[in-house]
């Protein structure tokens, strides 16, 4: 099987020849170029070059393409700070009140920085290696995450806790969903095989399972449904331990769930079996600080739990740290080949 066939089989819950492997490696890939990361993350050509170089070195089946968790926010006018040791970060929020969201337009990804640069990177990767490797061109961030960046994390958490402005909160989440959806269409038009939303702010580490179901879930599900109607595969990425929202996470309808290392692999496998594809969930700290043999052990153990009945892409549980050593990345990729074969 080719990498694309292998990933497609895993997502469609058919057995591939072996477990496919992804890398969530935009930070170490940018770092490895030797250029200032702030330049790589602002330039689609440099970003594509960095991802290509990493793919040539590691030969993973799926590329996760993004420039971090601030792209949509910046396109919507939020202040963003570019750094040299990590992904860009958002600064001051844009909205002083929930009402102000009605003044915002959904940005055109083709003409709005930095979405336009990520589209450029997608086009380059698609042209160069789009027939050899699965490109997940990420429409980060998801409804909840972008909402927190527009409104401010503590402000939105307070709005939710007070529970007095439900309609306006849904209005903000709906706007954020439309931003990500429009961007997702453009990424697929430029050659992405699938797309994703990152929802670090939607997990039980930050909001209660009840509030997850009441607010972000509604909009994540709507986005997954709309894209599915257009034949587009969506990944949903929620950071932290998602054990308390397992059934709702699956019920968003996203075809791939990106699972953090804090989530119990056996429990989520039991719930997701025959329903959805799991991607992850090797600890990114182990990948940064562990030894290759330890990475291999962790991969072997996870493969034992997640391989049965397909629906599994091996990879890190979240974005890999900037200084993840190459030998650990090799150990991750090679483990899928060594331990991940399906009986023919
Ligand atoms: Zn994460």
Structure description:
- By secondary structure, this protein is of the alpha/beta class.
- The chain has one domain (about 5-340): Alpha-Beta Barrel (TIM Barrel), CATH 3.20.20.210.
- The chain has helices at about 5-10, 25-30, 35-40, 45-60, 70-75, 115-130, 145-150, 155-160, 165-190, 210-215, 215-230, 245-250, 265-270, 285-290, 290-305, 325-340, and strands at about 20-25, 60-65, 80, 90, 135, 195-200, 235-240, 255-260, 275-280, 310-315.
- Strands 6-7-8-9-10 form a 5-stranded parallel beta sheet, sandwiched between helices. It has a 3-stranded parallel beta sheet with strand order 1-2-5. A two-stranded antiparallel sheet has the order 3-4.
- α2 (about 25-30) packs across α4 (about 45-60), α7 crosses α8 (about 155-160) and α9 packs parallel to α11.
- It is globular.
- It starts with a helix and ends in a 5-residue tail after the last helix.
- Bound molecules: zinc ion (ZN).
- The site of zinc ion has 5 residues, from loops.
Task: Order the strands across the largest sheet as they lie in space.
Answer: 6-7-8-9-10
Helix content: 40-55%
Mean pLDDT: 97
Regions with pLDDT < 50 over 5+ consecutive residues?
A: none
């Amino acid at each position: 099987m080719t990498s694309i066939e292998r990933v497609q089989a895993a997502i469609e819950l058919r057995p591939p020849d072996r477990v496919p492997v992804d890398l969530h490696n935009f930070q170490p890939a940018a770092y490895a170029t030797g250029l200032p990361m702030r330049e790589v993350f602002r330039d689609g050509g440099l970003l594509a070059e960095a991802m290509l170089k990493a793919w040539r070195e590691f030969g993973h089946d799926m590329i996760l393409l993004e420039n971090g968790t601030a792209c949509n926010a910046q396109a919507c006018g939020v202040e963003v700070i570019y750094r040299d040791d990590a992904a860009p970060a958002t600064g001051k929020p844009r909205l002083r009140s929930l009402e102000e969201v009605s003044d915002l337009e959904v940005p055109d990804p083709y003409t709005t920085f930095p979405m336009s640069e990520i589209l450029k990177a997608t086009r380059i990767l698609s042209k160069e290696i789009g027939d050899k490797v699965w490109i997940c061109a990420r429409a980060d961030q998801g409804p909840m995450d972008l909402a927190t960046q527009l409104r401010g994390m503590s402000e939105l958490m307070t709005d939710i806790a007070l529970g007095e402005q439900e309609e306006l909160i849904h209005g903000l989440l709906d706007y954020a969903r439309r931003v990500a959806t429009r961007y997702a269409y453009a990424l697929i038009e430029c050659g992405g095989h699938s797309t994703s939303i990152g929802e670090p702010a939607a997990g039980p580490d930050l909001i209660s399972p009840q509030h997850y179901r009441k607010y972000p879930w509604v909009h994540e599900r709507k986005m997954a449904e709309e894209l599915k109607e257009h034949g587009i595969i969506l990944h949903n990425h929620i950071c932290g331990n998602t054990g308390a929202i397992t059934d709702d996470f699956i019920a968003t309808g996203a075809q791939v769930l990106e699972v953090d290392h804090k989530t119990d692999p056996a429990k989520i496998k039991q719930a997701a079996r025959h329903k959805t594809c799991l991607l992850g969930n090797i600890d990114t700290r182990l990948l940064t600080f562990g030894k290759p043999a330890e990475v291999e052990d962790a991969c072997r153990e996870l493969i034992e739990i997640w391989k049965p009945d397909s629906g599994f892409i091996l990879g890190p549980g979240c974005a890999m740290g900037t200084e993840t050593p190459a030998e650990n990345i090799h150990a991750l990729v090679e483990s899928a080949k060594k331990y991940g074969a399906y009986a023919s």
